[in-house]
Amino acid sequence: MKKLPKGYYAVLPPDAAEGAESILFRGEEFAAEPGVNLFFSPAEAAAAATEIPDEIIAGLPYDSFCAPVVIFSEGEHKIDGTNLSRPVVLLGTKAGIDPNLPAPRGEAPGLNPERGDGESVLTGSFYRGVCTLSGDEMTYLLVDGFSCAQARFTDGRNSGGEAFLSFRNMIHLSHCGKNLFAFGSPSAEGGIRRRIEMINQRLSDFDDLDYGGMFMRVCPSKLTVKGLVYEKTCQLFGFSDLPRELPGCPANEELAEYEITDSYFGELSGDREFCTGSLPADRAVSVTVSRCTFADASMQGRPPVSVYVSPGSRLTINDCVFSDSRDNPGPAVLLTGEGGEVDIVGCEFSGFASETERELPAGTSAPSVIRLRPGKSGTDDPHTVLDPGEADFSALDSQYAGKTVSWGDLHVHTACGGTSDGKTPMKDFPAAMDALGVDFCAVVDHRQMRGFFLPEWDEKRFIIGTEPGTRITDLNSCRHGMSGVHYNMLFPHKYSLALVLANFPEFEFRGDELTGSFKYPKFTKERFAELTAFVRSIGGIMVHPHPKTMLSSDDPTDYSFGDGTFLETIYVTPSSHASFKNYRLWTELLGLGIHVYASGGSDTHGAVSNKAVAAFYTKEKSGDAFFRTMRSGDFTVGNYGIQMTLGGLPAGSETVGGAGETLLVRVPDVFPPSVRAGTAYELRVYTDKGLAFSGSFDGTPGQSVALVTEERKFYRAEVYDATHGYPVAICNPVWTDGKITK
Questions:
Q1: What's this model's pTM, rounded to 2 decimal places?
Q2: Which of 267, 300, 351, 517 is exposed most, by the fewest CB atoms within 10 A?
Q3: C-alpha distances in angstroms, 643 versus 196, 651, 665, 667, 692?
Q4: DSSP letter at 282?
Q5: Is 234 helix (H, G, I), strand (E, B) or coil?
């Protein structure tokens, strides 16, 4: 048996026998020494890898290596928690073998029969399946010949020197909702300069769990994509995030280069097409797309390619096929921005209204006051807009008389001992909140009630709560077994949770107020509905937090906890992928006639955050007052305070409505850190039939509108960031369908 050569470090399969002293790699067995060059985990092998090979194992498609080599046996290898801090080469059993077969022009390449069996499979987990790159010494990484199952690579560094990162001959197996490759944005000064290769990769029939994850989140100096097959998925491909706020060119470069060649994109249905982000005036991109196919490669009605071409940018598309079998009403290539060199030659187009179109970037200016025009609104659901000078706002003034705005985070975790898993001690929260302008927060530490009874519990700043979890065993349309939910239970009294635990023995609570803890039981839908009803019967609140991160279902009602409950529509930040997905889910539930309130929060387990606040109007500032206001539904999730009444009833109300009432909406306050210069906002009013009103303004608070109502099922208002494309404040509805649930 040949010894494993110098510079090679081997990873055994998890089921290898204790005391194993050899590894089988690509059909050849090598003798190795446990703990020296033979390991059971990628992390151990990478940590030990220091020497560079001076010979090549027979059959490997390389002439030499410039870094230590870690070889992986056939089978599954967990990468959870693996950290790579020095140059290294990771080779699977299929190194050098392209997973994609050659295909005729315009057709989807099939799976290479040499792949699929005998693979080295990198496996992850829902939360921690990440291989992390760190440190200034990590200047070179080559990964070749793996299949990946919920395995992801993350490089969060923003400073450093040159780094070359190459990922080759990889198959991405369903399912995963997270970013598969995530690279941090370099700093303007001393920023890392990444050259990234994605060569011969395959992502086919890949379920992203409706989460909105990205194949890669990247802001490189140079990116090369070659031989990619990317089809039948909602996973996002492109060079910006959902709101297109991630620029295509890093802050430490004037020009970023992208080269995409010999690749296939087909049957894609993600929320965002192949696109680049907006660019500052001093930065540009050079994008070259050659010998690629785009077949139904966008959300229906969207162009498969949209590129921001600022002055100095270049876009070259040659010898590509663009087809859409759905009679796309728009162009195949959308150009955004003013300037740039565009050269499109030798391409085939079918199924589009045009080959290319150019549009100006979204507006960045608006008046300081909405220009109200009395008469019909001219929106999808036209409503009569009252003359501002004649509208009577006395009902709204009366509803909010004596109340002032407070800003809160409705989902936080502290470090208070016991089973809490936050990083910031509870006693440090108030001072940190003051520094960030946060007046209150809902504390929902896991598996215990300890925090409520500690001396540092602040009655004026904290809302009482906890966040358990469960798997619901009989959902309608759950995929991949992703049936998990968390639920935030908020309470009016410190012993309310004790009542829940006493009446639902499935939690198996043990101990007392300070030492006790409970488990996360499984529930049927019926039993979970009983839990929800009980929480509400004792005056509590039930919230479905981060609904799109743990559960995956084709039926929106699987995400609903029922009438009178809450769903987080803004999660972490208003622009996060989760917020996009959660907001859409909330509107779907409203459209189904379910009376579900909007909530939101940062879900911070670390430092106090002010990125996902809510606006409450109360006469006093106390945890009790904030709780009662939340339970009423008369509050706004997001960066603006919105006051609303319909026929004298505030947001969150339920009534039997009709035509001829007056809807009053006012935006009196904005959370100061959230105002963005050069941004156009819109005050929008929606009904169950669509947009009833939209008025543009520059972000200045003090906006208002009065509408005459029609026969509708609900009315709701929001403030929308029209420049970047997402709501930044969401006011709860007034329901008028007569379905009283309170």
A1: 0.94
A2: 300
A3: 49, 8, 6, 6, 17
A4: T
A5: coil
Give the other-Cβ count within 10 Å of 201's Cβ: 26
> What are φ and ψ of residue 597, in 5° steps?
-80, 160
pLDDT digits over 338-347, tens only?
Answer: 888 999 999 9
CA distance 84 to 135: 8
Which residues, 6 or more positions from 428, have their beta carbon under 8 angstroms from its beta carbon?
none
Query: Whole-angstrom Cα distance, residue 426 to residue 464?
Result: 13
Rounded to the nearest 10°, the torsion over CA 729, 214, 557, 665 is 10
CA distance 656 to 705: 22
Across the beta sheet with 662-670, the strand order is: 375-376, 384-385, 703-708, 662-670, 640-646, 649-650
Q: Give me the residues paired with residue 408 across strands.
A: 440, 614
Q: Is 612 left (phi over 0), alpha (psi -120 to 50) or beta?
A: beta
**What tens digit of pLDDT does each residue of 585-613 get?**
999 999 999 999 999 999 999 999 999 99
Specify burial of residue 708 (Cβ count, 10 A radius: 0-12, 13-18, 19+).
Answer: middle
From the number of C-beta atoms within 10 Å of its C-beta (0-12, 13-18, 19+), residue 237 rates as: buried
Pairing of strands 140-144, 88-91: parallel
Strand segments, DSSP code E, in 492-592 are 541-544, 551-553, 566-571
The one-letter amino acid code at 480 reads H
Q: CA-to-CA distance for 76 and 122, rounded, in angstroms?
A: 6
Positions in the chain short of pLDDT 70: 742
CA distance 488 to 483: 17
Looking at residue 493, the DSSP 8-state letter turns out to be: S
Q: Which CATH number fits domain 394-735: 1.10.10.10, 1.10.3720.10, 3.20.20.140, 3.40.50.300?
A: 3.20.20.140
The CB density around residue 662, as the number of other CB atoms within 10 Å, is: 18
φ/ψ of residue 195, rounded to 5:
-110, 120
H/E stretch holding 669 reads strand 662-670
Which tokens belong to 294? 């785009």
What residues are paired with 359 via a beta bridge? 336
**Predicted pLDDT of residue 742:** 60
Phi, psi of 723, rounded to the nearest 5 degrees: -75, -40
